[in-house]
Amino acid sequence: MTFTAPILNYTLLSPILILLGGALIGVIVEAFVSKALRPITQLSITIGTLILALAQVWKIRNEQSMSAAMGSVVIDGPAILLQASILIISIISVLLIADTDHFTALAAALPGSNEERYAQQTGNQVTEVYPLTLFAVSGMMLFPISSDLITLFVALEMLSLPLYLMAGLSRRRRLASQEAALKYFLLGAFSSAFFLFGMAYLYGYSASVTFSGIRAAVVGGSGNDVLLLLGIAFVSVGLLFKVGAVPFHAWSPDVYQGAPTPITGFMAAATKIAAFGAMLRIYYTVFANAEWSWSPPLTAIAIITMLFGSLVAIAQRDIKRMLAYSSIAHAGFLLTGVIALNKAGLEASIFYLFAYGIATVGAFAVVTLVRDSGGEVTDLNRWRGLGKRSPLVATAFAGFLLAFAGIPLTSGFIGKFSIFAAAYESGAKSVVIVGVLSSAIAAFFYIRVIVLMFFTDPIQDGTSVEIPSVLTRATVIFSIVVTIVLGVFPAPVLTLISNFSTFIR
Question: Percentage of the chain with pLDDT > 70?
């Protein structure tokens, strides 16, 4: 038996390699750079790495070769768009993360211990959140471009493990943060186990771990359909967990509420793009000819997810939990793009993912600004009269809520209209009807928050809006501008997506 050296296309892999290189440099900086210089050094390295990776993604869009790592990775139009979206959202998320007031000075110390207090008092702030972010982004970049099951699983763990740690780094409410991290880790481990079961069944069905081999077996119909159905079901569980679809959503509210708010925004936006990117590739290419097997259950899950997320969000009194259930409802809306199984559905899904991601990071950036002496204030009752305390901040948050509701002249309207139109075109009328109904329900609790902010008098309970740092201000301004521009003048972005949205099979 002779050893065959792997052939790697480093040009196509360069964005991921840049991210991993930046993350390793961040680890070295964490170990050797003085505490005074560490934060600005880490921030500069992280932002520079993300911008360099984004430039490289755009550079490779015209490469002739589309396969890297001996067929384990494929770079096509949707891959370029999804990777660019992940990087843009990561950049504005890092600007939000740069406000280290959100993170504990020493994550390894027990909550409330003398060691933690001493680290806080002496300014010995550990900044491991930056390399962890880069490691997570590298996994997110690999996830939607994987073209075999083993690479897909490696990417899943690459993006998940740093997020488990980052969810437990909150400076205040440390126990709630650590509880959120533990729940996320345990449920994530269960979902990964289901994912591995699915991989085993698909290998048993097709005798291949590559997407092309599995697709050939599905088209040929020569395998055992029971193994195929089990494989699709278990792989879908792992993917649906990552997007927070019902009934695999249990982690979302607690993790969204307990994690540091900048991490919640990053996780809610970037992880959804990566997970739905992988889901679109798998269902649109590998399982396209087995639509009869997965379309009915996925339609049921989409309907239940939209209704559940919209209805339960009405009862929430915590702004982060409300946004968590809103995120669950949006996962249902995005599933309609998967069910559509046509080019219009692919284009609409990519646009929706980018528009929703930008608005999500912006919304959580605003949440970080409403504070009292104990830190962030997330109780909705204490947001009364926010529009009179700080009209600009409240207006920005109202803009994001209107985008989530799908109101015209926002990116959310274009996204929902496009994705429902694609589903209707494919014949999934039941999903469209429930989607429109769920959007109407969701609009109620979004507008309720707007009324609370602008049409009620503020209560003198110590709640105030902290003047944001330049970096946080940049995140909010960029997010609201993009949200409005994509709603008023979406044609250039839709044209760009249309030109690139074709999977290579």
Answer: 92
Angstrom distances, CA of residue 383 to CA of 217, 318, 411, 451: 56, 10, 25, 10
Q: Which is nearest to 419 in space by CA: 318, 342, 358? A: 342
Q: Is the dihedral of CA 409, 397, 101, 163 positive or negative?
A: negative
379 contacts 471 by C-beta, under 8 angstroms: no
Instruction: Give dist(CA 25, CA 30) in Å, integer.
Output: 9
Alpha helices in 33-122, H assignment, sequence order: 38-59, 77-97, 114-121
The verdict on residue 14 lying in a domain is yes
Q: What pLDDT digit, counting tens, does each position of 90-126 carry?
A: 999 999 888 767 777 666 666 666 776 776 666 667 7
List the structure tokens of 217. Answer: 């077996």
Nearest to 277 by CA among 459, 269, 133, 39: 269
Nearest CA among 332, 164, 184, 179 for reference residue 246: 332
Dist. CA 98–CA 44, nearest whole Å: 10
Distance (Å, whole) CA 279 – CA 269: 16
Q: Is residue 5 part of a domain?
A: no
Whether 4 maps to a domain, the answer reads no
Predicted local confidence at residue 100, as pLDDT? 61
φ/ψ of 170, rounded to 5, equals: -65, 140
Residue 505 resides in a domain: no
Q: Which two tokens stand for residue 254?
A: 């607690």
pTM: 0.93
Question: Domain range holding 84?
Answer: 10-500
- Asked if 286 contacts 214 with a C-beta cutoff of 8 angstroms, the reply is yes
Q: Is the pLDDT of residue 498 over 70?
A: yes
The pLDDT tens digits of the residues spanning 394-444 come to 899 999 999 998 888 889 899 999 999 998 888 888 899 999 999 888 888
Residue 62's contacts (CB-CB under 8 Å, 6 or more residues apart) are none
The total number of structural domains that make up the chain? 1
- Give tens-digit pLDDT for 250-289: 888 888 888 888 899 999 899 999 999 999 999 988 888 8
